[in-house]
Design a protein that fits this description.
With 186 residues, the protein is mainly beta. It contains two helices and eleven strands; from the N terminus they run E-H-H-E-E-E-E-E-E-E-E-E-E. Strands 1, 2, 3, 4, 5, 6, 7, 8, 9, 10 and 11 form an eleven-stranded antiparallel β-sheet that branches. It is elongated, with a radius of gyration of 16 Å.
């Protein structure tokens, strides 16, 4: 029996959808935030979205769009950056170029960075599964931080609709640094 050290906690569901807010709007899906202890990342579906990359390749027959080179998605105070982002949409359910794609999943890689407000997450790669409403960030060192509070592991699994998250150590140990000054005063 193998033991995989992990830590369970709640994060804002908007952290999980921060990187895909722009594409969710294209698909007509709505981001849903939940209250949690880590609430810094929030999306506003009513704000304009800007997507930049060095290259965009739309492959409608394969139901995917590939953004490569310095990918940056910004909506309000939320930013996603990565070396590449591939958007897979459901076959026969529109296209990215026409603005009516039904997004199935999104893969990001090459130094993934999510930021909004006081929360940030970094990883080597990530996958957003729109059907299962999950986000998985992976890497040698996956870091989730809010202010001076820092959580480090190798895989962050987030259930986007609830904000429930699990940080795995992958053979090592989960590391946590908590700032006592960050506690709420009653």
């Amino acid at each position: 029996m193998s033991v995989r050290p992990a830590i369970f906690f709640r994060i804002s569901a908007s952290l999980a959808v921060a990187g895909i807010g722009a594409l969710m709007i294209v698909s007509g899906a709505a981001a849903q935030a939940t209250s949690s202890k880590m609430k810094g990342l929030e999306l506003s579906n009513d704000k304009p979205i800007q997507i930049e990359s060095d290259k965009l390749e739309i492959k409608d027959p394969e139901s995917k769009a590939i953004f490569t080179g310095n990918v940056k998605v910004v909506q309000g105070t939320t930013t996603l950056q990565a070396g590449s982002m591939t958007v897979f949409y459901k076959s026969g359910a529109g296209s990215v170029s026409s603005g009516d794609a039904d997004i199935d999943r999104i893969e990001v890689s090459q130094r993934v960075f999510l930021s909004s407000g006081t929360q940030q997450a970094t990883a080597d790669s990530g996958e957003f599964d729109m059907t299962k409403q999950t986000l998985v960030l992976k890497g040698d060192k996956v870091v989730l931080s809010e202010g001076k509070n820092v959580f480090v592991g190798c895989q962050l699994n987030v259930q986007m609709n609830t904000g429930e998250a699990q940080l795995e150590a992958c053979g090592g140990r989960v590391q946590i640094q908590l700032d006592p000054k960050s506690q709420k005063k009653n």
